[in-house]
Amino acid sequence: MAKNPVYIVHCIDTEGPLHESVDVTFERLRAIFHLELEPSVDLLRRLQAGKVDLGGLEAAVQKVVDPHLLAYNDTWDKVDAMLADLMRESFRMQVRDSAGAGWIYNWFCVDHVDYDMNPRRRDIGYHNIFEHYRGLIRENGSSQDGLHFHYHPHSFRREAHRCATHWWSSSDSLHQILSRRVIDHHWFPAAHRPGFHVIRPDSHWFLEQHIPFDFSSQAMVDNGVDGAQFGLLGGRFGDWRRAPAMWEPYHPSADDYQIPGNCRRWIARCLNVGTRYRLLNEQDVRQAFKEAAEGKPVILAITNHDFRNMGPDINAVRELLQRVANDFPDVPFLFCEAVTAMRSALNLAPLPPCELELKIQRVNDSTHVLKVHSTTPTFGPQPWLALRTVEGTYHFDNFDIDTPFHQWQYVFDEETFPLTAVNAIGVAANNAFGTTTVAVMDPPTAKISRQHWNLPRSSARASLNSLPCPL
User: Fold this and answer.
1) Which of 49, 276, 307, 459 allows an S-S link to 18, with CB 3.0 to 4.6 Å?
2) What are the DSSP calls for 135-173, one per residue?
3) pTM passes above 0.90
């Protein structure tokens, strides 16, 4: 009898082009290792060869300045040239999974917005990266690939190349991005990956309200290598020191996202490939197959960036999978879209989409009430509420909750906006199965456009006995 499958989920932190000069590379070495080195191409080459005495840091520095890591796709032309190769059927099918299918990509798209400085030439603007990849998926007929959400918290200095941990400290970009995505594209995420691998109480509680599937955890057994890089120990940035170093997704605790508890969303472990730390290795892959053989629900998720050539990373992972799979002939492995993997591995019960029925009730000339109802419970206690004014500004607000998970209202008056000042109302919610509903109303006509995302896919791949990975 076949064991549980290992679901392979490739999560790409999809950020578009990135530029890095030699001077900036040395700035990063100063930040990571506290090394004061005079920038030059010659010194960089010697560091890459391990020919500079750094008091024991030589190997760790070599990892950071590896030529593959510094070969950035710094224009969209370079990104697209890479994608033209990687999205070909011939590349996807170089290694087939246990159902005979090829590699699947999950594009977790960020919006680079609301920055004052952009020295690394990121593509600044709402929807730019999302629209680029949505277009590529359509052009390539790559419906098996996933389109998801990635967010970068802003540093206090609002510099696009800096890391931060707080989602609301210096910008309202999170609410702007999602509200615009709801109204402009009738889209809302069911799966998420965090910028800089960072979750903190604010983002933990935010996700718990809206997004059921979270590919965040970078829990690892200490390998004694990453600690040479400043900031990787002591919990700075991606803090997963207490999280379970297993491939089985878990519900987090309300007060500690790293500890299994009674929250609603699922957190999956997701290790790096093609970068400088928390790297997936053969032992991690063997652990995934062993856990699946024991009957555990296993999602082996990996992550890298589109601003580097992902081909070598994918090939390295596929080689690992083939080598380890040979030792576990009864354990299938399946390349999978992120939402589908969570549903299948955890054997989640299907639910109908949330209906999100919208009605406007007039109280008087200056006061109107939006009533929203869903028979199917929403994932969190309230849907997302997005507003666009006639002046073209976007806003997020809370509902008044009549019945948690089912019924809400919102009052348009002088305390919020008069209804005449609003030209679009967007309401979005997931159910616990990860099916997304977006309803957008045109207030003057009360016409509603409604779309459902992440509906259960065809079960064609499930024809292989005991492989419950529907597409």
Assistant:
1) 307
2) HHHHHHT-TTSEEEEEE-PPPTT-BTT-----SSSS--H
3) yes
